[in-house]
């Protein structure tokens, strides 16, 4: 999946504002440009963060809906020490938090 396809699919699942937050940009215009392919995701860590977010969002939206996935990313999560998955991915060490977020998404998708 290309970066443009990734961002476009993630934007469809989570919305442009949440993708901008995860991609550490301040404006949704950057998200649109990424999705169009007219702007590159400059930081490899941001790109990996978006890939992890896509995997988690897709797991949840396959069981429920994109709206549920969006709410899950923003809600406090007891598995993640009562911080939101979006914040864990954005502010935490991606090597540690990425697997934790995926595990929490897997559990949510399995149990609800």
TrEMBL record:
It comes from the Bacteria. This is Antitoxin Xre/MbcA/ParS-like toxin-binding domain-containing protein.
